[in-house]
Amino acid sequence: MRNPIFFALAAASALALSGCGDANGDVRRADTSVNVIDGSGLNDIMLNATDPKEAVSYFSRAVAQEPDRIDLWRGLAKAQVRAGDYNASSKAWGKIVSSEEGTNEDRVDFADTLIRLGDWDGAEKQLDSVPPTHETYKRYRLEAMIADSNEEWKNADSFYETAAGLTTKPSGVLNNWGYSKMTRGQFSEAEKLFTRAITYDPKLFTAKNNLVLARGAQGKYDLPVMQMTQIERAQLLYTLGLSAVKSGDVTLGKGLIREAVDTHPQHFDAAARTLAALEANVTN
């Protein structure tokens, strides 16, 4: 179940600092020190609105100028996560949590980065150092993932349920919870959780595909009523077809895969190749 769930958001942003003229018309070079930047709110802008690599470069320069500022190290660690450099980020988080200014939220973020690196034991150690009074969505989502990795199913269910109740957008954690149920062979419960996830986010295709997998595992080879595009419908039919074939119902599986090929608005290469292989196998 150790499938770290990875996500990254990036948007381009152009930032410029210009000089200003005094009463005599003299133009002076803008002060680009960290203190002036802080005053302009550029730290938050760089962290949330720019290309991740630009943010990493910015915070790297900032900590080089003022290496004792933990807030700048925190910005660097978060920027490195966004840029996908989890090794570097884990080093920055290690410095942060070992300082007097390290917070419980820092330890939770450190645990998140360690999970991305596959260091589940290290992540668990960080979360164990966070007091139970620190109740946040992210903390419980990570606790659930770690409990899953340890096959502590009762704890995992409790943490997933708590996490889902601490956010207004629980589709992602419900999908993870459903996947956990599916790995345990509890397909009916998984189906309900995937359905709930889609209710909160009708565009979450991962949950739709998982829902179809859970239904296929129960011998349900019809698509449930839900919002889907034509391409999604074709892909879900293909998933159902593969599930049927895996279960030994090759004839039904071929029919579903053929329907997927016919449904897709463009050429569905993967489904077409699978169908050709199945038909060739039957012929032989």
Tell me about this structure.
There is one protein chain. The protein is an all-alpha fold and 284 residues long. It is 66% helix and 1% strand. It contains 15 helices and two strands. Helix 10 (171-183) runs parallel beside helix 12. The longest helix has 17 residues, at 230-246. The two termini are 38 Å apart. InterPro entries: TPR-like_helical_dom_sf (IPR011990), TPR_rpt (IPR019734).
Topology:
Elements: E1 20-21, E2 27-28, H1 34-40, H2 42-49, H3 52-65, H4 70-82, H5 86-97, H6 104-116, H7 120-128, H8 137-149, H9 153-165, H10 171-183, H11 187-200, H12 205-217, H13 230-246, H14 250-263, H15 269-283
Antiparallel strand pairs: 1-2
Helix pairs in contact: 3-4, 4-5, 5-6, 6-7, 7-8, 8-9, 8-10, 9-10, 10-11, 10-12, 11-12, 12-13, 13-14, 14-15
Keywords:
TPR repeat; TPR_rpt; mainly alpha; TPR-like_helical_dom_sf; signal; 15 helices; 284 residues
Going by helix content, strand content and strand pairing, the class is mainly alpha
Approximately how much beta-strand content do the residues carry?
A: under 5%
Give the strand order, joined by hyphens, for the main sheet: 1-2
Note the total helix count: 15
Helix residue percentage: 55-70%
Task: Give the SSE string.
Answer: EEHHHHHHHHHHHHHHH
Stretches where pLDDT falls below 50 for ≥5 residues? 3-33
Question: Judging from the principal axes of the Cα atoms, what is the shape?
Answer: elongated
The biggest sheet amounts to: 2 strands, antiparallel
Q: What's the pLDDT, averaged over the residues? A: 87
Kindly provide the radius of gyration, computed on alpha-carbon positions and rounded to a whole number of angstroms.
Answer: 25 Å
Protein name: Flp pilus assembly protein TadD, contains TPR repeats
Keywords: Signal, TPR repeat
Signal peptide: 1-23
Pfam family, one: TPR_19
